[in-house]
Structure formats: structure tokens, C-alpha cells
What we know:
The chain has two domains: 174 residues, P-loop containing nucleotide triphosphate hydrolases (Rossmann fold, 3-Layer(aba) Sandwich), CATH 3.40.50; 60 residues, no CATH class. Helices cover 42% and strands 25% of the residues. Strands 6-7-8-3-9-10 form a six-stranded mixed β-sheet, with helices on both faces. A four-stranded antiparallel β-sheet has the order 2-1-4-5, with helices on one face.
Amino acid sequence: MLSVRDLHSYYGKSHIVQGVDLDIGAGEIVSLLGRNGAGKTTTLKSLVGLVSGSEGRVELDGRRIDGNRTCAIARQGVVLVPEHRGIFAELTVEENLAIAERRGSGRTRSAVYDLFPRLAERRCNRGDAISGGEQQMLAIGRAVLCSPKVLLLDEPTEGLAPVIVDELIRIVRGLAQEGIAVLVVEQNIRFCEAVASRHYILSQGKIVFEGTSDEFGRASDARETYLALGSPGKSAGDAQTIRQGINQ
Length: 248
Ligand SMILES: Nc1ncnc2c1ncn2[C@@H]1O[C@H](COP(=O)(O)OP(=O)(O)OP(=O)(O)O)[C@@H](O)[C@H]1O
Ligand SMILES: [Mg+2]
């Protein structure tokens, strides 16, 4: 579905993304992990044409999308939900969705309300008068209105309570079950382990680890060196607990 080859991005003279290769299949959830400043956000922004002067080959279903404008890339099906959610504070939930619905193709607001019943309850609240979790749902809901093939989520669980994180896990899994490919950047390792089946670690703009969840669980050196996590131990146990809770 999405294939990225030899991606390079720069801010001025700083070479931030240094030859990244990524692959995400339809219905697959993949995580991109790394320390602060590793270049995760820059990678996601580069994929949707938000970092000028990026180089490399980005293909969606075999067709090149690199070099296109962000709105064209979104129409083709690659949609970024940015780190700080990017919703309009002064507009209501309904109005935020209405704008995206007009730009989007196919999905309707009522489909988003079905996916996020909480948003339906808050439809008249302004964007700055809903909780952080509801803001994240609104941001994902807006992206869903674009009928994405690939969703890029930048730190979706940031600042959210564990119970809301569980809800997001269900939602992200549901979207993947519909065939949407999801690339999730996260600091929340438990979320990644619960939701993603493959993981990449980025360090100083380069992919330094790539593997399945099992391989990631066993890669204690990489976890220690690049994520300061060490052996899976507690975090793997937590992920198991989350999975059990969700599957109940
Ligand atoms: N607009 C910008 N102009 C110049 N440098 C930038 C800009 N945005 C980010 N950088 C720098 O690029 C590097 C990578 O930043 P990026 O935001 O991609 O990291 P990240 O992995 O997403 O980090 P975090 O986990 O803190 O979100 C950092 O050194 C950062 O300071
Ligand atoms: Mg970031």
C-alpha cells in the first residue's frame, strides 16, 4: 500500500531524515518509535508534502505521490493527524467535521458519530471546550472523512488517560479492519505494543530497527539503546493486560 524509499528531509542545513525506508500494507498497523528529536514528526510531515525539499520515493499502491501538494496527497488517500491535533478551537465539533466533510470524499459526519458516540454528544461544544481525548477523536474523525487509505497518527495518546487510550486502541484497530493502513508515531510504548504488529525505531533520522512485535519484544539491546526501555518485562505484561481488557 504505502512504500517509502530513501526519504531525506532537511530544515535549512540540518539533514533531519537520512534515508528512511518504510512499508505499510493495507489493514496493517505499524509503529514508528524513537527518542525526542529523532525525526519522527519530520518523517510523517515529509510523507504528506509538508517539508519542502524532501527527497525520495513515496508510492501509494504503486503510484508515486512524492512531490505532490498536501491536499492532493490527502485526496489520493494519505492523511496526517498532526501532533497537536489541529482542530479549530472556535468552531464547534459539528462545524469542524462539516469543513472536513465538504473537502472529503464519501464518508459523512454521521459515520464519524457512529465511530465516536462521544463526539455526537458534544456536537455543539466548541473545539476548545471538549476533553483532550475528545479532541483526538475529533482529529481522527476529520481524517476519516477524507476516506483515507493510509492514516498517519502523530502521538495520538499524548496527554490521554488510560481509559481513553483503550478506546483509541479499539478505534485504531477498527479502522485497520476496514483495510486502512495506519502508521503511528508514539512515545507510549504500551499503546504501540498493544496495537501494532510491526515496529520501526528511528534514531538521528535513520531506521535502526525493524521487526515484528515478537522481534521487538526480544530486541532488548535496541530498546535499551534507542528507547531507554531495556527488556520488555513490565511493559510487555502491561500490553498483554491491555489486550485482554480490549478483547473481553
Ligand atoms: N520547523 C523546524 N525547523 C528547524 N528544525 C526543526 C523543525 N522542526 C523540527 N526540527 C528539528 O528537527 C529534529 C527532528 O524533529 P522532529 O520533530 O521530527 O522529532 P520527533 O522525533 O518528532 O521528536 P518528538 O518525540 O519530540 O516529537 C529536531 O532536532 C528538531 O529540533
Ligand atoms: Mg514529534
